[in-house]
Design a protein that fits this description.
This protein has about 240 residues and is α/β, with parallel strands linked by helices. The chain has 8 helices and 12 strands. Helix 5 links the parallel strand 7 and strand 8. The longest helix is centred in the first third of the chain and has 15 residues.
Length: about 240
C-alpha cells in the first residue's frame, strides 16, 4: 500500500507542477520548475527524481553522442540510480548489468570497484558516477575501470567537483563524519575532487574527453534541463 501511495503522490505532484519552463530528458515531462534539493534549488525532477548529473548523462548518451550507446552491447553500471537504470535497462540491444558493493542495494553483481574479479575487457562500456569520492584508493579503482573496459569501448566517470580548486583535496587523517562533511561535502566522502581528476584518469591509461553539457547546450538549454556547470563528464577510452 505504501508504494501505491507513493506513486499516487508522485502523480499528483507531477500534475501540480506541470508547465513548460523546464524539461526532464529522462522521463520526458515538463514542469514550471524542478524540485528543490536539501542543499540547492531547482534540482530534482518531480516525476523520476533525476538530479542534474543524471540529466546531463542522458542528454550526452541519447542526443549528443548517441553512437556511444548504439555501438555498445554490454554495459556495467556502478551504483545505478533508478532514473538512469530504468532507461538503460529498457534498451533491447543492450546487456545492462548493475553492480554495487552495498548489500542493501538491489543489483545483479556485488563488486568492489577496486577489485571486481571480472575478466579483462569484460564490458564495452562502464558508467561510474559519484562513486570514486567514496573510495580510499581511487587509483586502484580507476585502474580497474580501465581494465574491465574493452578496447574501443568507453567509461563514463562523474564526481562532485570543486571548480574553484586547482587540485583535488584529500587528507586521510580526516575521518569524523562531521569533519568530512565540512571538508568533502558529505560524511562518507574521502576527498573533494578538482578538475585535475582528468589527470588521474589519464594516469590509469585512459584517453579522457572532458564534456561540459551545460556549455554545449548554452545558457538557455542548460536552464531548461536544469544542468550545473560543475557536472563535468569525463568520457574515458582505453589508451
Amino acid at each position: 500500500m505504501s508504494r501505491l501511495l507513493a506513486a499516487a503522490r508522485v502523480r499528483a505532484l507531477t500534475a501540480r507542477r506541470r508547465g513548460s519552463t523546464v524539461r526532464c530528458p529522462l522521463c520526458e515531462h515538463a514542469f514550471d520548475r524542478f524540485k528543490d534539493e536539501w542543499n540547492r534549488p531547482n534540482a530534482l525532477c518531480w516525476r523520476c527524481g533525476s538530479h542534474e548529473r543524471h540529466r546531463a548523462q542522458w542528454l550526452l548518451l541519447d542526443q549528443h553522442r548517441p553512437e556511444l550507446l548504439e555501438g555498445t552491447r554490454a554495459l556495467l553500471h556502478f551504483s545505478p540510480e533508478w532514473c538512469l537504470r530504468d532507461r538503460l535497462g529498457s534498451l533491447s540491444h543492450l546487456r545492462y548489468v548493475t553492480t554495487d558493493l552495498d548489500p542493501a542495494q538491489d543489483v545483479e553483481l556485488r563488486l568492489d570497484v577496486t577489485a571486481t574479479g571480472l575478466p579483462d575487457g569484460a564490458f564495452d562500456a562502464v558508467i561510474c558516477s559519484h562513486v570514486l569520492e567514496h573510495v580510499p584508493d581511487d587509483a586502484a579503482a580507476m585502474g580497474e575501470l580501465r581494465r574491465v573496459t574493452a578496447p574501443g569501448g568507453w567509461c563514463l566517470v562523474m564526481v562532485p567537483l570543486a571548480l574553484d580548486r586547482a587540485t583535488t583535496y584529500e587528507d586521510a587523517s580526516i575521518t569524523a563524519p562531521e569533519d568530512r562533511r565540512r571538508e568533502f561535502l558529505q560524511h562518507d566522502h574521502v576527498r573533494l575532487y578538482a578538475p585535475d581528476i582528468a589527470e588521474r584518469l589519464r594516469a590509469a591509461r585512459f584517453a579522457v574527453e572532458v564534456v561540459d553539457m551545460a556549455a554545449e547546450l548554452g545558457p538557455g538549454g542548460a536552464a531548461r534541463h536544469g544542468l550545473l556547470a560543475s557536472d563535468l563528464i569525463f568520457l574515458c577510452r582505453p589508451a
